[in-house]
Amino acid sequence: MKIKKINIHIALFLLLCLSSYLQAMRYSGDIFLFDIDSRISAMGGSWAAQNSKSGATYYNPGSLGLIEKKSIMLTHTHAFGGLVKYDFLGFCMPLKSKTALGISLMYVGGDGIPITALPDPSDTISINNRPYLVKDEDHLQLTMFPSFNYKLLDNLFIGATVKLYYAKIIENSAWGIGSNVGAVWKALPSLNLGISISDITTTRIMWDTDTKETVLPNPRIGITYDKHFPKLKGNIVASADAHYYTEENDQFIGVGLEYSYKDLLFIRVGLKNDITGDGNINTFVTGGGLKIKNWNISANFEDHSELDNSYKISASVDL
CB-based burial of residue 277 (10 Å sphere; 0-12 exposed, 13-18 middle, 19+ buried)? Predict the structure, then answer.
């Protein structure tokens, strides 16, 4: 009877997700598809079934139910040789009831957008009419992610996140709102299954130019195996995700492996495989971490085949 009850709850949740997914009309971009946790990134970006603590507010709000303590995380990312820089700050806490809460803020931005002009705007570019730099403009994107999680059963957690978005690029600005949903099922003590649908309500972004953009729902499923091995004096975590990008009809597969020695030293490797209409793009990722009392410090390195490399540094503390 208990197994039957679990299956009914899972089926109802999946039907809710799919009904909203099929209502989507088009896709705008991937502004909400960054990796914001060095540990997750080093494991191939496979986060759907992982306990990412406050990162769950950004990733899968269903995994927010896996936390046991209050936690704060801060991440800085230097991507593609500094072409993109972003920061993440998150907080989460379990409550005495069957709920957990979290909130986070992500900043993407920088300077260096050159604004140029011609000495003679009525003429074409030439040796005598070369563009000159007027000024450098800043750009920024801010997104807040308040999240809520509920323990539906002893081993089934469901969650939802609201996304509040603001952007300022040169002289234009935009506001947006959307939501993510997700669930994690602890099928076994060492095995988690996860599902997440980002932008399930179709995120809408309104620019001050009267332009409107939408971000369509994108589904992801994942599996995580976390087991302690006494002979190895540590834990091994293996995870894998599959993600579908709606508009481009592209897919993403991420796999990762982590070994922790006495819960002090962490070694991580991962592979990201983007399957597009132009072919496959494989990205190898490595990283490591160190735990000092209740502090966790992680870093990872990502080798891009056609762009400069990226690195990410995360620090979290359990309160």
Answer: exposed
User: What's the pTM?
Assistant: 0.82
DSSP H helix total and E strand total for the chain: 2, 17
Mean per-residue pLDDT for 267-276?
93
CA angle 280, 284, 285 (to 5 degrees): 140
- Cα 40 → chain centroid: 9
Q: Residues near 12 by Cβ (< 8 Å), separated by ≥ 6? A: none
- Please determine, for residue 125, whether its predicted confidence score (pLDDT) is greater than 60: yes
Alpha carbon distance 7, 23 (integer Å): 25
Conformation bin of residue 120: beta by default, left when phi > 0, alpha when psi is -120 to 50: beta
Sign of the CA dihedral running 158, 41, 163, 75: positive
Tell me how far apart the alpha carbons of residues 312 and 16 are, in angstroms, rounded to a whole number: 35
- Characterize 79-115 residue by residue with b for buried, 16 or more Cβ atoms within 10 angstroms of its Cβ, and e for exposed: beeeeeebebebbbbbeeeebbbbbbbbebbeeeeee
Nearest to 109 by CA among 80, 149, 75, 82: 82
Distance of CA 131 to the CA centre of its chain: 39
What is the structure's pLDDT at 137? 65
Neighbouring C-alpha atoms within 13 Å toward the C-beta of 240: 2
pLDDT digits (tens, 9 = 90+) for 228-243: 999 999 999 999 999 9
Q: What angle do CA 77, 82, 83 make, to 5 degrees?
A: 110
* Residue-range domain boundaries for the chain: 2-318
Which amino acid, one-letter code, is at 126? S
Any bridge partners for residue 109, and if so which? Answer: 85, 140
Q: Please name the helix (run of DSSP H) or strand (run of DSSP E) that holds residue 29, with its range, or none.
A: none
Domain made up of 2-318: CATH architecture: Beta Barrel (2.40)
Q: Could you give phi then psi for residue 94, rounded to 5 degrees?
A: -85, 150
Contact predicate 237/258, CB 8 Å = yes
